[in-house]
From TrEMBL:
Assembly behavior: Interacts with LEPR. Interacts with RAB13.
GO cellular component terms attached to this protein's record: endosome membrane; Golgi membrane
Membrane topology: Multi-pass membrane protein
Pfam family for this entry, one: Vps55
Keyword Membrane: yes
Sequence intervals crossing the membrane: 20-38, 59-78, 84-110
Similarity section: Belongs to the OB-RGRP/VPS55 family.
PANTHER family: LEPTIN RECEPTOR GENE-RELATED PROTEIN, LEPTIN RECEPTOR-RELATED
Record's protein name: Leptin receptor gene-related protein
Keywords in alphabetical order: Endosome, Golgi apparatus, Membrane, Transmembrane, Transmembrane helix
Amino acid sequence: MACGAIGLTFLMLGCALEDYGVYWPLFVLIFYVISPIPHFIAKRATDDSDAASSACRELAYFFTTGIVVSAFGLPIILARVAVIKWGACGLVLAGNAVIFLTILGFFLVFGRGDDFSWEQW
């Protein structure tokens, strides 16, 4: 929870500091929301936990990777075309790293099929 707040703080600093003042980087919030969706669809579609890998799961990993790479690419493109400053780009990239590592940590801790689940919390 605290890591997500730190990542969002980096994102907001990249937008709201007086030197930057442009809110275009907030579009990466869309990537934060849609990044877990392929995993949820693949988990619902394939319920076989015995298989080491399945085509549906691999396709979900592919789409998730594309979403994450796009989230890192958007601020770089915005900085390259001078819509945002490079300092803001750095803050947004730092926020992206923290947020996506938080999402990954959540799925590593709570995404297993054993008796430990988020419903216990």
